[in-house]
Prior knowledge:
The chain is of the alpha/beta class. The protein is built from five helices and seven strands, in the order αβββαβββαβαα. The longest helix has 22 residues, at 92-113. Residues 29-35 have low confidence and may be disordered.
Amino acid sequence: xxxxxxxxxxxxxxxxxxxxxxxxxxxxxxxxxxxxxxxxxxxxxxxxxxxxxxxxxxxxxxxxxxxxxxxxxxxxxxxxxxxxxxxxxxxxxxxxxxxxxxxxxxxxxxxxxxxxxxxxxxxxxxxxxxxxxxxxxxxxxxxxxxxxxxxxx
Length: 153
């Protein structure tokens, strides 16, 4: 025979008081300032990505850039960005490489081309992996310029 089964805590039950839940939802990290330059903030919620998707967009062979002004009174004035890399672009190592390349390219372009109080979303394509890095940086800088160009001209 054997001994009786011992109860095991397979599921962890967590209780968050309503005040703690609300504080966690409304948390917005301030942009980090290093060497006098403001780093980009990040888009974290689906609604923020959707709002940027309703803004202006510019397509390149490596990505599509979507940009929208942020509503008044919403956090700090540093630009924020988000990345979208779908499974169509490749397996997980390829997707992670694309994300790292786009993050670094955005970091290099950020002080020059981005506007404060704007949200940006980069939707990656497979060519973002094979394009030379300098060309990728130049494409992002050009896309930022084009997305803010006046439509009437």
